[in-house]
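Assemble and predict.
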Amino acid sequence: MLRYVLSRFATFLPTFIGVTLISFAFIRVLPGDPIIVMAGERGMSQERYDELVIQFGFDRPVLVQYWEYLTGVLQGDLGTSYVTKRPVWDEFFALFPATLELSICAMIFAVALGLPAGVIAAMNRGKFYDRALMSTALIGYSMPIFWWALLLIIVFSGNLGWTPVSGRIDLLYYFPDTTGFMLIDSLLSGQSGAFTSAVRHLILPTIVLGTIPLAVIARQTRSAMLEVLGEDYIRTARAKGLPPGRINGIHALRNALIPVITVIGLSVGTLLAGAILTETIFSWPGIGKWMVDSIFRRDYPVVQGGLLLIAVMVMVVNLTVDLLYGLINPKIRKR
Amino acid sequence: MSLLRLRNLSVEFATTGGRFRAVDQVDLDVDKGDVLAIVGESGSGKSVSMLALMGLLPWTAKVTADEMVFDGHDLSKMSARARRKIVGKDLAMIFQEPMSSLNPCFTVGFQIREALRIHLGMDRRAAQARALELFELVGIPDPEQRLKAFPHQMSGGMNQRVMIAMAISCSPKLLIADEPTTALDVTIQAQILDLLVRLRDETGMGLVLITHDMGVVAETAQRVSVHYAGQKVEEQPVRPLFRSPHHPYTSALLAALPERATDKRLPTIPGVVPGQFDRPQGCLFSPRCPYADDHCRKVPPAPRGPDLGLARCHYPLNTDERLAS
């Protein structure tokens, strides 16, 4: 088992280097200059500009700059933001809990609705519920995220006034960041109404971010269930006189989960990418919004570091998913 | 009153090409302690009729029967819920492919205890004890360890023993074995058949053995029901059937036994079982029958009397022998 994990980590290395290369190259290919952006509308003198070019090391060949960046990364130094002058590492971990909180909620939303939807659709194959659920899933999958978000904001925040438009919590409440997770911190603070406010702020972003994974999980669960329901062991389960709920919910679902888990793992990547849009729309102070802001500011170290950390996150999640297979599918469990 | 009584059982499948009749007006009786073999080629409807009895057919199948009485209950008139109380408990079935018939995600112990807990309401400990007992009964060595194993960790023969243990866990009154040895090695086949017959002797349950292996029939069965293209074409006790088959199809099946071959080439029955679109107008066997005439091709034969093995034939064979005896 340990050898397997280590060999998987070995395959991480080329991916890791590739991500550093791409993030390093792409942000530099974008038109714009971080120094000019920094100067803002006032502009700056040519002497000051040349001074800063040397200070940031832009005068040296790109390959040398990349090499310095890469060696820094391998030593755990992701650089310092041009704008805030704080280490990228610190900024990332200050903002990451917000994204993680949103992503976890979105995932719970997607799995909690997607799995039952897929199972119900499979059990009613070709009938009304199947068609209704699967067309809804297709719509959810094809809908542009920003449009869906705006639609929800107009209806639920604008017309009905049920949910707030943006942010993580009402400005009325203030308490220290103990964990970085608003739901936990608001409970710990003991202020009445803080938790409810945090929950109300989470609802719309969760739905928006969870929609695509929800649709994917529902469709995958349905097709996996349909395949499993045709298996001989399901016939055996029926021959044993087990009730349908037990056959579908235990005997079939456990087998159908194997491909579904893969899809859930892959959705984590989609989720982090989707978080960039969702956070921007809802002014959610997470890494998505941070990345977008940094791209506009041409804050090279932040964009590079952020991309790299997101990529690592996705790789780790996929490894975890692979290890989870063993728990669900005894055939690949090592003895 | 027999344990199982089927009258006029028919099964039709709705297919894209119209209706297909897989089982056609079959009558069957099985008593306690009886071993009935159902034989026939692939596509003769032998499995489908038993799956219909168990209620295991997909929703595309339409089952009709005048009587489908098991142990005094008419299964065709019961709710699905009431039927589940009988199926798996008093009426059990094992299948052809033991490897794929067990759920790969659960230990065999879980799968056997599950039946005990659902039907007999046993607690965990009682179910475990009974499972151990059953594994010993079906001859699984080291039962305590084997209960913790997953199906893929055991051989096909062992898995079939697990299936049998599971099927007899609630002491069924009737066990249906659908080609239980087809997927197994020859040496294991004999062991499994011996086990089934021994269990029948010990428990007095009825046994229905679906097979296309006449050797298996000769060794284990008491009565034989021969099926062709969804119909029962003949039924006789095993010895008279082998000695004097009345239906030409039975006779051809027996002639096709490799053990009886004298020529260099193995004997075969020319042609195939008619399918959905080439069903003959008269006797279903007429296109392949060496004795068929125009009458056979036009008029479907009705079953003859019990003295002629209920043969569905206009010109039953071996009638002289009956007169002589």
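Residues 143 and 310 of chain A are 24 Å apart (CA to CA).
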